[in-house]
User: Fold these one by one.
Assistant:
Number 1:
Amino acid sequence: MKAYLSVDIEGIAGINHPFPTRREDASYPASVGLMVGEANAAIEGALAGGAEEVLVNDSHGGMYNLRPVDIHPAAHLLQGQKPWSMVAGAGPDAGFDVALFVGYHARAGHPTATIAHTYSGRPTLSRLNGRPVGESGLNALVLGAWGVPVGLVAGDDALADEIEEWLPWAERVVVKRAFGGSAAASVHPSVAGDLVRSGAERAVRRAAAGELRPLIVEPPVVVEVEYHRPIEADYAALLPGAERFGDRGVRYETADAVTAYRAFLAGVRLAGICDSSGDRSDPLRETAYLGRP
């Protein structure tokens, strides 16, 4: 069994406000410590469940957050700028049997979820075939096309509801209750570790038993993204095949899930190069999840 672990930071227990997720914030090292704790718990659970190989993809911001010396020695750690972002290393020939999402969060536009966004601070809402979707669903989309089922998603209770709709077969681990975009009530980090460890073990065992399935979206695959500003949508719509709709929306339709994911990622990256006039008020801004420092 081979397990793929994508680790984000906003959904980690004890991280309840956007600022501590940023490298320049004084509390960022403590946040990374919490991130390491849940990542190692997932690795331990995967190994206990029968995984013989675990690849950890550092999936937050510039994607060089985790200290390699802190990560469980049985795992491999993938870090740095990656065109495939949060699913890098899990391609069609990698042979992974299950994917585990730790530290994930709910979609942009969610009314109560903690630090809710979708890949950056630019999108206000994303849809997949007409249904609101977040990073977990979009990542599961491309992993599903590669034959990899998502077996575990850990984060807040709002994310758990989102996962129940998109990935009902996956283990849903709740490590905090959301009280809005910048507030949550978290369990103790040790409790979060226990929950993640148990969930990862169950997920790997269920994958081995054939109880999980990849997310398959029947064509046509339609991705729609609404942005904060019309100019961001204008930039995103430069992608061949994209079309503008409404005031701030971009739509991309294709027969292939992998192409749909690539189009989404490229569109968000294009939107992110717009001049923000020096506005630093959005703590997520354009740098989150795009593999840039």
Note: The radius of gyration is 18 Å.
Number 2:
Amino acid sequence: MNGFQRISAALKGQATDKVPVMLHNFMVAAKEAGYTQKEYGTDPVKAADALIRFSDKYQLDGILMDIDTATLAGAVGVSVDFPEDAPARCEHGCLDSLEKIADLEIPDISLNEHLQVWLETMRILKAHFGDEMYLRGNVDQAPFSLASMMRTPAEWLMDLVDEDSEESVHKLLEYCTEVSCQFVKLMAGAGAHMVSTGDSPAGPSMISPAMYAKFAMPYENRVADYAHTCGVPYLLHICGDTTVILDRLAAMRVDAIELDYQTDVKKAHELLKKSPVCFFGNVDPSGILARGKAADVRRETQKVLELFSDTPGFVLSSGCALPSTTPEENLRIFIKTARDFR
């Protein structure tokens, strides 16, 4: 089986010849290729080159095409900064009052120059790999996260607890869902085999499970539904400890979830082995893969592999983005442990 076939099978809950491996690796890929984060994030040729070189070097099964967590926000008017040695980041919001949501028009985000970098990078990857390597195109932030960037996280959390603002909150989430779905369509059209979004501000470290069910999950499901109409699976990523919402995640209409190492992986396994939702994860990217010793990497990778050995719907990955300082030795041990398993 090639990489595309392995991950495609895992998403369908089918057996594979080897455990599929995909990494959240754009920062370390850029560094290994000799590019600054700004060069990587603004030049699709360099971004694709970095990801291709990394994939060939470590023999991955799939590529996560990701650039930053601010592009979609920038496309709707949020001010974005582009540091030389870090991914782009939001500077401040663009919606200083929920009352102004009525005046917002849905933009054509394809006109955003930075967003086109993402799409052109995916086109280059698709032309290079075809259906040999599984290509996951991140489409930046899910609706709840995008709303928090437009309002700023502090104002957004205040909006959520203000009962008088609930109607406007949902109007903003509707707006953000329309924008997210545009990116899904564009990324699928650029050749991605799968799309994904991040929704970490919707996790339990920020809001309650009840709030998640009310303000985030319905809109994540709608993006998943739209991805399916575009003919591609959808993965949801949430940082932090998501243990208390695992039951909700396992019952969603998403095809896969990627959860951080802080989540109770044993509980995740217990729920997901009975669910059609595929699990991507979840070795600690910083404490183990970036800063751990070789024995730590081997031990923790082996633990996850053994736990999910009875679960076909599984792709080995880091729990979140790998730091640019992740050493080659640890990456090679991580990959070798997976290849030698079974």
Note: The chain has a mean pLDDT of 96.
Number 3:
Amino acid sequence: MDLKISGKSAIVCASSKGLGRACALALAKEGVNVWINARNGKTLDTAAREISGAGSGEVHTIVADVTSEAGRDAILTACPDPDIVVNNAGGPPPGDFRDWGQREWFDAVNGNMYSAIDMIRRSLDGMVERGFGRIVNITSVAVKLPQAELGLSNGARAGLTGFISGIAREPAKSNVT
């Protein structure tokens, strides 16, 4: 399939395995130059080798934690003008809401809501100026079908979904979806 995105640049967060890796692989197969990141350099290098061999898009690696400001700085320094941003991060641990305090909630919101919002904040205006952009937020089925033991994930990811719904219309006028 030709999605007409060959030559574009994409940041795919948390992309050494799972859905992030699959997204980076699909984009590289379409000829997109991808910047992949993970906290573990060894698994990141393994993913980069697989992705590099699968398509014509160039693969660049950044060892960074997307849930930290320093990690996001490193990612956006490596690829300052992405055409595509795929927001992704591992989920908070399951458990009983009675056991979660402020720290657990703040970590969940930072990792699965704020980090994505910050990546959008830092890349959206450039996409609008260039007249093209795609932002994909990988969340969870728990957004539609919440599960009690995934309360931290339910809350943070549903919050991101609500935020995106509120801001999506304006940039769409500039071919940024």
Note: The beta strands are 9-12, 33-38, 59-63, 84-87, 134-137.
Number 4:
Amino acid sequence: MLFLIIGVTFLISLIAFVGGLTLFLREKVLEKIIGSLIAFSAGTLMGGAFLHLLPEAISEKGTDESSLLIIFLYVLLGFGMFFVLENFIRWHHHHNKEHPEIMPFSYLILISDGIHNFIDGIIIAASFIIGFPVGIVTALVVASHEIPQEMGEFGVLVYGGFKKTKALLLNFASSITIVFGGIFGFLLADRIGEKIIFLLPLAAGHFIYIAASDLIPEIKHKESIKKSAISFSMFLAGIGVMLLMKLFIDV
């Protein structure tokens, strides 16, 4: 079972290279679409938080007032943690002359994606332990979520200052954490119990912070109504993809 979980999670981690398709685009073309990729990524982050992570946590813990209070406290904790982390990275950014061109939110994207993928690995491992069919369906759901998200995140990393090849490799490095999550979930399945569910609202807080604080401000100041409309449409498209996943693929 462990080798099956490692194999499946490793295959999913390879989806990070979907962003590499943009390597074949000319620089001018990439510059034109990168704003749309940022808007799309913001939409998938918000959609993932509100349509997947939070509903899953609520369905597991219940809708009574105390359970909801704990869940939303974890959301605020996740939001606050990334606020502090970003300010630390920005402070380090201003005092580090080696890579002064890298925007702080680029590192946040990588950290958040690593956490998210680690949680996905735990969920996949737990699903396979419950039953092979459940594990397969869960893996397909996770893979479906990753495809649009990785495209958007690659664009954000390039926009944030990374060279395209380095952005691709770093994106894969953050994706490979899904394998470690799978191993962790398999080894500690009996001990984790219900506590694992609180990682979901924590990750949701991370996603909301990045989308609202870093990505959306980058796309809302457009010099024309047409470009603003395109950005907003791509933002809605990102949410729409997450909604379709919830309605037609999620189980």
Note: The two ends are 22 Å apart (CA to CA).
